[in-house]
Amino acid sequence: RVFFADALPAGAAWDASVLPDWVRLSGLLPPGPIGLAAWEHEAASVHAALAGVYASALLDADSMANVLQETVDVQIPVDARLCRITGRIGGVFAMAENPSGRILLRMYPAKGELKSEADLHFGERISLFLDWALLRLHSADTVPVRPLLLCKGDSPWQDSLTRWDAEFRDADGAQQKQLRTDLEGRVAGLLSRWHQAEIQPPLYFARTSWAAAQDADAQNAGKVQEAWHSGHNNGGEHAHGQGYNLLLAGDIDFETDAKAFQALHAFARELNALISFPEVQA
Fold it and tell me: Which of 95, 96, 74, 98 is nearest to 85 (CA)?
């Protein structure tokens, strides 16, 4: 919130030594040196994020100061029925070089710096993918719609979305229609699995499933179990979700329960395929 509410609109004028009133007076930080150390971590992440914005050259001072909320209204076929999807997408900014273009800006802080893209789990990736895909489908075909994920290091997944957007805008009529149908199918696939989960919830946990999705040959159940239940990282994902994860999964062990691991792995690979594009488009 500090980044979007205070630092981004101020840009180079943002002063990390001055705590915003809503932080200083709200009791969000503990008193004394502990609170100061927490603020310094927050400020360091914000500085790293601002550096990422400037390095991208996608936003200018005017667009940084004006966050947008875009309304989308898209109709796509889902399970042989036409589904209308409406809503508002926040964290959108006008593109510096093309004011009609749209940038979806997301920040991922981590202990005084930024997360690497590889550390983003399904919860973060799927929400961004849906925002981007729906805004892309809603917008005019010639308008750029690009994600800007503020992470450290390489960003191959973000780059693949940007590349797809460029290929879509440059395509001729027939190819563009094919690409649009493919993107609609990916959104439909995510929605279909969400609807099915209301009837029969799959084995899916955002962090653990992401670890499984990286195991192409389903040979590393131990690493997946470590994401689920470990002696560090706050005990693993089974301890997250206010206890609901543990309630839903019980004492499951993905390293010893081959059937559970295969079910988790198969669903995770399906999700990953829906939100990922090949490195080189035909």
Answer: 74
